[in-house]
């Protein structure tokens, strides 16, 4: 894939740098060692992403026929990508549960975007979905590198296998959808919107797969990823940002739920994984106010804004919020959808123009 229409794909990980930074300072080498190695590997992959963006990557043929084209590779605990092919589209499940989960997660993501929004794969044109599992040793992350998904196995102490939560898979692939549409700048408020949109669609993919309504969903990102020793339930909570974990090693979840607690920082690309809690909470409020299946109305509004062409790369929260109000009115009229979206942003302290 080459850069698309001037787009510059970014390297996006599910575990925020501030979490790994905290782990890297742990006194126990069994915790600090994998975190430090993960940070080093992430830095390397981030640099590779920039180089690939500059020189261009090999073009990938897309076939827009409404069916997924999945390929799963096994890195065999190395770091060469994509690794050894272990399962292709239509192949029967094998004995490796990680491979099977990755394959199913790619399919679930494809299914949600196609069935709910009429989008054929993440680029809208049938882009093949490739993933690599068993990446590196004790690698505490999963990422989208602009071309494919990559999953670590976790260290077993803090993080488990990164293919376990289907919303992690959906989250990372949704970065690809953003890459091919609004291409939000990965810094500050635009970067927080980028992260939030991935959380939104990651949550919707999980809910769609489970057949859950907004009221039935847990609204957690990464539930099942944390090892038993960790005092926490997930990486993030859209229902109650700041409550996903409170652990003696990881520290406390720093996400704010409203603009009153907006975090100003130069770390984590200006707090993209932290302040994403604010638009995350706005989506949760809108979706639960409307009830039913969240992908049908609130999700449709968010998708309309992401793909509608008016969302600028440098969009701030107020810009995104304003566009959601406009999209709700255009699609559903002056009814409960408009009211729910408007009130949700008001509740998190983001004004609309």
What does this structure look like?
This protein has 353 residues and is α+β, with helices and mostly antiparallel strands. The chain has 10 helices and 10 strands. A 6-stranded mixed sheet has the order 1-5-6-4-2-3, with helices on one face. α1 runs antiparallel to α2, α7 packs antiparallel against α10 and α8 packs across α9. The N terminus is likely disordered.
Tag the structure with descriptive keywords:
353 residues; 10 helices; 10 strands; disordered N terminus
Question: In a nutshell, what does this entry contain?
Answer:
This protein has ten helices and ten strands. With 353 residues, the protein is α+β, with helices and mostly antiparallel strands.
CA(first)-CA(last) distance: 37 Å
Helix content: 40-55%
Specify the structural class: alpha+beta
Largest sheet: 6 strands, mixed
> How many beta-strand elements?
10
Shape: globular
Number of helices: 10
Mean pLDDT: 93
Strand order in space, largest sheet: 1-5-6-4-2-3
Could you list the spans in which at least 5 consecutive residues all have pLDDT below 50? 1-8, 53-57
Q: What is the string of helix and strand elements? A: EHHEEHEEEHHEEEEHHHHH
Q: Using the CA coordinates, give the radius of gyration.
A: 19 Å
Strand content: 5-15%
């Amino acid at each position: 894939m080459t850069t698309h229409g001037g787009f510059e794909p970014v390297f996006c990980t599910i575990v925020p740098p501030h979490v790994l930074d905290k782990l890297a300072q742990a006194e126990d080498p069994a915790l600090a060692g994998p975190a430090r190695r993960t940070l080093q590997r992430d830095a390397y992959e981030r640099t590779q992403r920039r180089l690939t963006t500059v020189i261009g990557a090999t073009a990938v043929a897309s076939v827009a026929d409404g069916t997924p084209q999945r390929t799963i590779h096994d890195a065999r605990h190395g770091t060469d990508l994509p690794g050894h092919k272990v399962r292709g589209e239509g192949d029967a499940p094998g004995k490796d549960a990680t491979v099977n989960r990755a394959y199913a997660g790619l399919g679930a993501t494809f299914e949600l975007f196609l069935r709910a929004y009429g989008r054929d794969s993440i680029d809208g044109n049938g882009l093949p979905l490739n993933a690599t599992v068993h990446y590196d040793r004790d690698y505490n992350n999963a990422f989208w590198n602009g071309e494919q998904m990559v999953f670590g196995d976790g260290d077993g102490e803090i993080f488990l296998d990164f293919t376990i939560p289907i919303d992690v898979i959906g989250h990372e692939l949704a970065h690809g959808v953003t890459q091919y549409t609004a291409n939000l700048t990965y810094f500050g408020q635009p970067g927080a919107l980028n992260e939030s949109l991935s959380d939104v669609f990651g949550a919707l993919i999980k809910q769609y797969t489970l057949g859950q309504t907004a009221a039935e969903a847990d609204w957690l990102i990464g539930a099942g990823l944390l090892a038993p020793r960790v005092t926490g339930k997930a990486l993030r909570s859209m229902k109650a940002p700041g409550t996903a974990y409170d652990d003696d090693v990881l520290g406390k979840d720093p996400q704010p739920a409203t603009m009153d607690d907006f975090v100003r920082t130069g770390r984590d690309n200006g707090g993209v994984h932290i302040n994403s809690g604010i638009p995350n909470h706005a989506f949760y409020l809108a979706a639960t106010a409307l009830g039913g299946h969240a992908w049908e109305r609130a999700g449709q509004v968010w998708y309309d804004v992401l793909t509608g062409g008016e969302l600028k790369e440098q969009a701030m929260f107020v810009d995104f919020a304003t566009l959601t109000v406009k999209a709700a009115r255009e699609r559903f009229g002056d009814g409960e959808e408009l009211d729910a979206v408007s009130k949700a942003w008001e509740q998190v302290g983001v004004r609309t123009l």
